[in-house]
Amino acid sequence: MHRFANPTRFFRIANAVLPVLAVVSAGLFAAGLYYALFDSPADYQQGETVRIMYVHVPAAWAALACYATMALAGASFLIWKHVLADLAARAAAPIGAGFTLISLATGSLWGQPMWGTWWVWDARLTSVLILFFLYLGYIALVNAFDDPDRGGRAGAVLALVGAVNVPIIKFSVDWWNTLHQPASVLRMDGPSIAPEMLLPLLLMAGAYFTLFGVMMILRLRGLYAGRRLRQMRLAAASR
Amino acid sequence: MGGYAAYVWPSYGIAALVLIGLLIHSWTDARRLEAEVARLRELGSDIRRPADMRGDAP
């Protein structure tokens, strides 16, 4: 693992992976959207609104995976002090905020026709809203310090404390009475969802996750270049 | 869309807008900052990267 902490080696590998990941992501989006919109059945209860699931559920999964990435990267930064770990946590935050925003907005658009309300303060929706604020808080915090390492450490602590929210989100539908439906894919006794709906759902999930990888690499490159710029300017100013 | 078009299409629209916006921002940000690094380096103001940026891990 430490071998990849060398930025030169890391970016050589990441840049080789980037075009492959981008093509796979585009392909998965094309196939996923085709099945989601044109070649999957309407739900017997929810009708055509079930198609919202194909953009809503993968966004929520990606939002949680993104937070786990951010917290693990933050922990690595605290323990090993690798700059790339800090940059990875910073790169993940706006992407995770975007995924969370998608799941909140599309969930609202699904809730109105199915539940008769845009929003309800139940455990699932509220914990996901907190996830969104955790991402925004992290972004504000890491950028509030002149010394990026201090900002990174403060952000890492916030990310780790906030990680308690991840299992709360996942199990909120089991622990509390919520309007939100329980899990139908990641269940102990296998998916309960119809296979014709599982296919577009998994294709879209693959598309979201590969796009997450593409955006992580691009943001890491930008953040790393930003750090180098800062070093160059500091050096120029001290001459 | 069985009478639900007003909910289904905006969902796909919001998802597309956020994802494409994030992707474009990530891409242009990386390009802009990397170009700036290259420009400064050509001006000869480059320095050796300090040890913590080289990441020579044990």
Automatic annotation (TrEMBL), chain A:
The chain crosses the membrane at residues 12-38, 58-80, 92-111, 123-145, 157-177, 197-220. Belongs to the CcmC/CycZ/HelC family. It comes from Thalassobaculum litoreum DSM 18839. Required for the export of heme to the periplasm for the biogenesis of c-type cytochromes. It holds the Pfam family Cytochrom_C_asm. Residues 11-180 form the Cytochrome c assembly protein domain. One of its GO terms (cellular component) is plasma membrane. GO terms for biological process: cytochrome complex assembly. One of its GO terms (molecular function) is heme transmembrane transporter activity. Signal peptide: none annotated. This is Heme exporter protein C. InterPro entries: Cyt_c_assembly, Cyt_c_biogenesis_CcmC, Cyt_c_biogenesis_CcsA/CcmC. The lineage of its organism: Bacteria, Pseudomonadati, Pseudomonadota, Alphaproteobacteria, Rhodospirillales. It is found in: Cell inner membrane; Membrane. The gene is ccmC. It is a multi-pass membrane protein. PANTHER family: CYTOCHROME B_B6 PROTEIN-RELATED, HEME EXPORTER PROTEIN C. Keywords: Cell inner membrane, Cell membrane, Cytochrome c-type biogenesis, Membrane, Transmembrane, Transmembrane helix, Transport.
From TrEMBL, chain B:
It is a single-pass membrane protein. GO terms for biological process: cytochrome c biosynthetic process; cytochrome complex assembly; heme transport. Keywords: Cell inner membrane, Cell membrane, Cytochrome c-type biogenesis, Membrane, Transmembrane, Transmembrane helix, Transport. InterPro entries: Haem_export_protD_CcmD, Heme_exporter_D. The chain crosses the membrane at residues 6-24. GO terms for cellular component: plasma membrane. Signal peptide: none annotated. Its main location: membrane. Pfam families: CcmD (PF04995). It is found in: Cell inner membrane. It comes from the Bacteria. Required for the export of heme to the periplasm for the biogenesis of c-type cytochromes. Belongs to the CcmD/CycX/HelD family. This is Heme exporter protein D. It comes from Thalassobaculum litoreum DSM 18839.
